[in-house]
Amino acid sequence: MTKMRKMSLVTNKVEVTNNFLPNGQFNLNPSMTLRTGKISENVFFNELNLEIKDKEEERFPINLFVSLKGIFEFEEIESEVEVFDFLKLQGVQMVFPYLRAMVSSITSSSMFAPVILPIIDVSQFFKDKN
Fold first, then answer.
1. Residue 43 burial by CB count (10 A; 0-12/13-18/19+): exposed, middle or buried?
2. Is 41 exposed, middle or buried (0-12, 13-18, 19+ CB in 10 A)?
3. Fewest CB within 10 angstroms: 22, 36, 65, 88, which?
4. Tens-of-pLDDT digits for all 130 residues of the chain?
5. How far apart are CA 102 and CA 24, in angstroms?
6. How do strand 62-74 and strand 4-18 relate by DSSP bridges?
7. Residue 111, Ramachandran bin (φ over 0: left; ψ between -120 and 50: alpha; else beta)
8. All domains of the chain in start order, with CATH
9. Distances in Å between the alpha carbon of 69 and those of 15, 25, 32, 47?
């Protein structure tokens, strides 16, 4: 079994745009993508990208894009397939709470109503994605 040595987080991008909509009730419909890859021999990453976007048919007071990368360093790797399986499930479970906290903090610090993302079941959320 492959053992993880350490994990670090890198914020790739944070972008917030005020759409200047009047007060009202809005539906939160975030879009989240996952990207995984290899950096070096024993270092891999998963990158969670979250986007909330105002659309003509579904208005939202802000546009928000947050990209957070988890960098995972392993001791000796027995199987890269095992590592990528780890990144897609346990790796996301480790990074998502930080992404969730960032979104809440950024929106409330920007003088907007805080956006609180729901807790997700990662095994179901990225079930059909490779």
1. middle
2. exposed
3. 22
4. 678 999 999 999 999 999 999 888 888 889 999 999 999 999 999 999 999 999 988 899 999 999 999 999 999 898 999 999 999 999 999 999 999 999 999 999 988 889 999 888 888 776 655 4
5. 24
6. antiparallel
7. left
8. 4-125 (3.10.420.10)
9. 15, 32, 13, 4
